[in-house]
């Protein structure tokens, strides 16, 4: 997401490191430090997927990995049970945290919401457990995996979800408290523990899908309990926390709007994966998931901005600082564009090369590359809409997104069944592209007309144009060089050299990147 325009004042108590000039200039309480910490965390999560997924596939097979993709689909579908509370509590925690006399109200709010979350997690986990047989028999389509193996894996999935679901509320609280750094470090550590632990279990105990999910349940449970410990520590008060209907009512209306958004967004963001898991073979579910995971690197890269920008949006709205709000909006939009366009165009133009360097599997490359390219373009469009979305949420407006997604669902959900049935997994990726392209063509101009009148041209001119054109032209040029001069001898060395050349030119073309590098490395 986009970068924060305001920074926090220097903390006088930050440890000074005079012998290390670069470190001594860093303020670990600043917005920049929080963004960097979150970016590091997301990078670790993304790299864990990139590095370890091919290992999982070699150890348990593509079809078994399709069950991992199926769990992603299942958990994504069940996340609608979030009821909008994680985002609502983030907003309310930010408001209460700005008022020192509301410490006990804050603790009661957190305690009340976590009770609801754990109850939902328990019920849903049991439902998945008892529906494992019908899911294995009537939903999942496998060629070689026996039904009992699939059934057992689905039962463990229920346990994993039950332990994972409450983590979202603790993440929401940490974001609202602006404790992004400990939250980011915990997330990064959890990703590494899950990845290394899974490989260790598969190598030392047994390379089966059941043992993969057993380890996921253990590691996810430990992570959730650790986040709970952190939130209790940061929200501690002198009085004992109690279940408070009063505090729940403060987030009721906003949470109801968020629930509406979640239910409708489900059809747009998760229905494709559910339909794919039903209509295509488990092997192709794995290909689809790999493409989606790589394209989702874009959101992983910019998502650290969410935890910094959204609380600041909420604070500026609450204090009616309209000019600062607009500046923050444009600066965050600009940074989203600066980051996502070069990464996105790299995935689009070099999809086959990246997949082959990663997996060394020509069959996988053939089936996955077109899906990856389509997903990536759709994800770039999706990322562009993040800042308008969080701007509206900070203002407490959820109706715009609800109406927008209802219209998109009515038009595009039927296409999902048609195109998936006709074109397979690639057809489902086309739906993702159409949904998000529609947001750019229709929703973005309407958002500016309703909420930021007169700012659309500034957004086009100042926020999007230069990153879009410069990264697109540079990476298209790199692709043409590879096509006409390096086709036979192209390897990862040449690929890295081309990207490095494009990256250096891009750095010089983008003023913000030049200033950032100058401040980071040259300023004394």
UniProtKB/TrEMBL annotation:
GO cellular component: plasma membrane
Chief location of this protein within or outside the cell: membrane
Compartments, as annotated in UniProt: Cell membrane
Protein's name in the database: Oligosaccharide flippase family protein
InterPro entries the UniProt entry points to: Poly_Biosynth_Transport, Polysacc_synth
Keywords: Cell membrane, Membrane, Transmembrane, Transmembrane helix
Membrane topology, from the record: Multi-pass membrane protein
Pfam families given in the database record: Polysacc_synt
Membrane-traversing stretches: 35-57, 69-89, 109-133, 153-173, 185-205, 211-230, 251-270, 290-314, 335-359, 371-393, 400-419, 425-447, 468-486, 492-510
């Amino acid at each position: 997401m986009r970068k924060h325009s305001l920074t926090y004042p220097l903390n006088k108590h930050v440890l000074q490191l005079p012998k290390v000039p670069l470190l001594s200039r860093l303020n670990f309480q600043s917005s920049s430090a929080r963004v960097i910490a979150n970016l590091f965390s997301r990078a670790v999560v993304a790299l864990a997927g990139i590095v370890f997924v091919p290992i999982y596939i070699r150890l348990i097979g593509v079809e078994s990995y399709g069950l991992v993709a199926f769990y992603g689909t299942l958990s994504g579908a069940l996340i609608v049970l979030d009821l909008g509370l994680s985002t609502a509590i983030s907003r309310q925690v930010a408001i209460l945290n700005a008022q020192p006399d509301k410490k006990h109200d804050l603790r009661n709010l957190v305690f009340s919401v976590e009770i609801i979350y754990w109850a939902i997690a328990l019920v849903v986990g049991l439902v998945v457990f008892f529906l494992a047989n019908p899911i294995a028999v009537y939903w999942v389509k496998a060629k070689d995996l026996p039904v009992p193996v699939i059934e057992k894996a689905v039962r463990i999935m229920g346990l994993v979800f039950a332990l994972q679901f409450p983590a979202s509320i603790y993440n929401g609280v940490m974001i609202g408290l602006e404790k992004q750094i400990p939250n980011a470090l915990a997330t990064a550590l959890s990703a590494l523990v899950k990845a290394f632990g899974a490989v260790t279990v598969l190598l030392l105990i047994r390379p089966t899908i059941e043992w993969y999910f057993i380890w996921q349940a253990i590691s996810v449970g430990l992570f959730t309990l650790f986040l709970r410990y952190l939130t209790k520590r940061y929200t501690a008060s002198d009085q004992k926390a109690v279940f408070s209907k009063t505090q729940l009512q403060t987030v009721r209306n906003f949470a109801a709007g968020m629930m509406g958004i979640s239910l409708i967004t489900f059809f747009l963001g998760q229905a494709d994966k559910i339909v794919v898991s039903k209509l295509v073979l488990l092997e192709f579910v794995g290909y689809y998931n790999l493409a989606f995971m790589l394209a989702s690197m874009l959101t992983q890269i910019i998502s650290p901005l969410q935890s910094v920008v959204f609380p600041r949006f909420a604070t500026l709205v609450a204090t009616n600082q309209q000019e600062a709000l607009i500046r923050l909006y444009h600066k965050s939009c600009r940074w989203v564009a600066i980051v996502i366009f070069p990464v996105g165009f790299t995935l689009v133009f070099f999809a086959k090369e990246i997949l082959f360097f990663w997996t060394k599997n020509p069959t996988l490359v053939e089936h996955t590359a077109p899906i990856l390219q389509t997903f990536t373009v759709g994800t770039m469009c999706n990322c562009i809409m993040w800042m308008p979305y969080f701007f509206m949420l900070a203002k407490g407006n959820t109706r715009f997104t609800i109406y927008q997604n209802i219209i998109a669902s009515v038009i595009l959900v039927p296409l999902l069944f048609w195109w998936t049935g006709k074109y397979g997994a690639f057809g489902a990726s086309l739906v993702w592209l159409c949904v998000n392209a529609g947001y750019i063509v229709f929703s973005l101009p309407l958002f500016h007309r309703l909420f930021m009148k007169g700012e659309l041209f500034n957004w086009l001119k100042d926020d999007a144009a230069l990153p879009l054109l410069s990264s697109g032209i540079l990476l298209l040029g790199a692709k043409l060089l590879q096509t006409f001069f390096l086709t036979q001898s192209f390897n990862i060395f040449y690929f890295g050299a081309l990207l490095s050349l494009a990256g250096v030119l891009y750095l010089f073309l983008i003023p913000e990147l030049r200033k950032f590098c100058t401040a980071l490395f040259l300023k004394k």
